[in-house]
Write a structure and sequence with these properties.
4-stranded antiparallel sheet, elongated, two-stranded antiparallel ribbon, single chain
């Protein structure tokens, strides 16, 4: 899965960041649940409940992540190479 920041909106200390998710795996689809996200997030919602296999019309969606008092980059834990 690749991620691409799309846009961000800020009001006082709150920030909503839209991130595009694209599935690059032609053999796997993913269920999306905001409760599985890790980080110092206030909330998140996915535009669609699943991310389909690459090449399907469902292979791309957007997640909207709400943070308070910090940027999204600081709110998410760093991933290590080799993580899946």
């Amino acid at each position: 899965v690749t991620t691409t920041p799309v846009a961000a909106w800020k009001l006082a200390s709150w920030t909503v960041t839209a991130v595009k998710l694209s599935n690059r795996d032609p053999s796997r689809a993913f269920e999306l649940d905001p409760r599985w996200l890790q980080g110092d997030l206030y909330g998140a919602t996915f535009m669609h409940p699943t991310l389909g296999r690459r090449g399907s019309v469902e292979d791309t969606t957007t997640v909207f992540i709400v943070t308070n008092g910090q940027s999204l980059a600081k709110a998410l834990p760093l991933s290590q190479r080799g993580d899946s």
